[in-house]
Fold:
Amino acid sequence: MLRMQDISKIYRTDLIETHALRDFSLRVGQGEFVAVSGPSGSGKTTFLTIAGLLENFDTGTYELDGRDVSRLTDDGRSRIRNEKIGFIFQGFNLIPDLDLFDNVDVPLRYRRMKADERRKRIESALDLVGLASRMKHLPSQLSGGQQQRVAIARAIAGDPALILADEPTGNLDSLMARQIMDLLEKINDMGTTIVLVTHDPELARRAQRNIHIVDGLVIDSPPYEARESQRAARAGTSPD
Amino acid sequence: MLGYYLRLAIKSFRRTPGLTALMVAAIGFGIAACIVTLTVYHTMSGNPIWWKNNVLYAVTMDSWDPNHAYDPSHPQRAPDMLTYRDATYLYGSDIPERKTLMAFLLGSLSGAPGQTRPLPVMTRATTAGFFHMFDVPFEYGGPWAAAADRGPEPVIVLGRKENDRLFGGADSVGRTILWNNLRFRIVGVLSHWNPQPRFYDLTASGGGAFAKPENAFVPFRWGPTLARWPMGTMSCWGSAPVHTYRELLGSNCVWITMWVQLPTAARRERFLNFMNAYWAEQRKAGRFQRPRNNHLWKVSQWLRIHHLVTTGSRLLLKLAFAFLAVCLINTVGVLLAKFLRGASIAGIRRALGASRRQIFAQHLLEVAILSLAGSVLGLALGALGLRGVHAMYAHTINAYGAVAHFDPIGVLWALALAALSTLLAGLYPAWRIGQVSPATHLKSQ
Structure:
């Protein structure tokens, strides 16, 4: 699903250069639930923005869903973001003056989907997160946990191949956090690949695989191939 | 997507009603200022018979005092009018395709059915060529025949307003009426005709450049025949007495306006040669002692030398555009601030798949709606402004009062120009918001 090879990203100012990622390599398989953790400033968010095609990188290659997306135009990156990636942010990032229906509608609008199809998808996504009855509410009328559920509905409405979640429970209490993790696991069970960035070891443990980043380097990750072999052995098939 | 962008724009306006009103008002006032000044400017600088600009010519010859220029502030200019002697000689030429002489007389109309009191009318004594040359439209009938000029025959053309007053607007052609107590046959009634500026007579005594055309027209020769003194501008020089009409006809006084229609450059050249030959002959006889200054003026030149586009109106126009520019710069500033305040939302949209072009289009539509709303407001304020200018000058002979009407072409120009410039001014804020980097704004959440 996601294959990064020797990715480097340097932020430059007039005075300093900051190496956010150095020779960063990572593979995430189809349907995996991967947690990426690391201390503050380790490069987790940079990894996520590059994985989500929100930012360019300096060197290396990146394949997403079998396609090289390393050197796409801005329009091309927008299209891939719209069709293949769903985002969940720590701050929810809902649009305050749009109701829940219209918030979930945003990515579908840019896909130029027909109205009927959009309505079906929005209702189904809001139903999945348990908010179908509050479609016409504004985000400000919801609790933090509910707002994050709307953000999840927005992420899954377009049926993306990959969901990138950046500290999705960071602004929530533990009960809400558990509910959100339950929801993400449910979505993963439906076949969607999830990459979760978190600094919370509790949450990371609920992922199938844990990757640890320090100073822009992957320092602790069970190799994708080894894990796939284990899975294949359990299932009685060969990897890939 | 247009419907979607429209919904977003309306939400955006609702989110910031104060700012929206401020921007619409700024655009509206800028456009209104442009509409008022452009309309005045357009009318004042407009050539009301532009389609004949290259064939109609005002005729001037410098028959003035050899020791003093006719107009000391423009010593190179000949008098605008001709003496009777010169006008009638030049009128005798068959080089022009058409030609006309004219003077301004005061008259009165009486004898219409049910009329109790004589009606004073401004009368233009002219020739049949006047109507043909200036494409004067007729409601009923038409110009008198050229033969009527020679008689002169007692024929008259009435203005529409006079015909409405005397005959209730009915076709009065063939009926008779008393003009200065002489019986005249009505041969034509004008339909609406109000060339602005009134290019064929720009003299102040005729009401000024922006006066309306006269209410009655009679053959030119009725003036000399009845020895009716012209009421328009008349300038004389020298010490010879001008007490009688006979003395006027032989005097150095200039009081007759002459226009000719010369369809080709060759004819124009021939007529100018004809004028020059006459000038040389008269000079030998002791007249025309000033340097030769015979001229044929196109309508546009005629309007220009009479300064109908004044420095004042040009300055006003520049000020109006400067005002619009200030309004637009303010609007751009407010738009920029408003759009950039919403940059995080644009960042979210970009993250969710909107392309730069889509963000640009969404915001450009918002600008277009503002521009449209500002234009509508500007149109209304412009109409009020023109009405105000008209009211202020209505009781004076100042040109502004006469031209401050809602001229559709001038208004369309002003509106298109202002709306387009607003849209262009909005391009930058819309482009800037389109350049928002999604990562920057999402990281800062």
